[in-house]
Design a protein that fits this description.
globular; binds coenzyme A; alpha/beta; single chain
């Protein structure tokens, strides 16, 4: 299809949360194809390997009820803007939670804009239900035997329990 709108939603997804899934559902309304870019991101020292994170994201997407466009899950190790270009994307989505996200996102958007002014970053405000969810807190709570079943799908919950058990 000509002029197909392609969007990227990049992240480390260590692990994917219900907050991410809500952004994915909403972003899928805005483009003709959505690519979930799972970053290798060794600098973040992820708990889950890249292949585990890819599998968790793919399973959660397969189980999603509300999808408004085709969604692909792809890993990347290079610069985000190069990954976006390789996939002919015009836009990159980011979820914005409390104001603490702003500084980091502002800086990243600014850098990416300098490198690739033709690719827009689109922010979707996280809904109030998911404002305080973060992958780091989920890992910490799970490690200390807390209940994180409200924040991740059963697929991810099983993986977390297997990892920390
Ligand atoms: N709901 C719930 N949680 C959310 C959320 C939402 N809507 N949106 C973000 N989060 C949380 C995540 O749980 C995660 O929490 P954590 O920091 O406690 O782990 C955090 O916000 C951000 O994680 P994630 O969404 O997975 O993205 P990220 O910030 O780790 O991703 C990349 C960063 C991949 C986009 C960035 O590192 C990148 O672009 N890498 C490629 C290299 C590159 O181009 N670098 C130059 C950039 S200028």
């Amino acid at each position: 299809m000509e002029n197909k709108r392609i969007g990227i939603y990049p992240g480390t997804y260590d692990p994917i949360t219900k907050g991410h899934l809500h952004i994915i559902e909403r972003a899928s309304k805005l483009v003709d194809k959505l690519i979930i870019g799972v970053a290798e991101n060794p600098g973040k020292n992820p708990l889950f390997s890249l292949s585990e994170r890819l599998e968790m994201v793919q399973t959660d997407i397969d189980n999603m009820h509300e999808k408004y466009c085709p969604i692909e899950v792809v890993s990347f190790k290079n610069l985000l803007i190069d990954f976006a270009r390789d996939h002919n994307a015009q836009a990159m989505f980011r979820g914005l939670r409390a104001s603490s996200d702003f500084e980091y996102e502002f800086q990243m958007t600014g850098m990416n804009f300098q490198l690739a002014p033709d690719i827009e970053t689109v922010f979707l405000m996280s809904s109030d239900k998911w404002q305080f969810v973060s992958s780091s807190f989920i890992k910490e709570i799970s490690k200390l035997d807390g209940d994180v079943s409200g924040f991740v799908t059963p697929n991810v919950l099983n993986r977390l329990q297997a990892k920390q058990g």
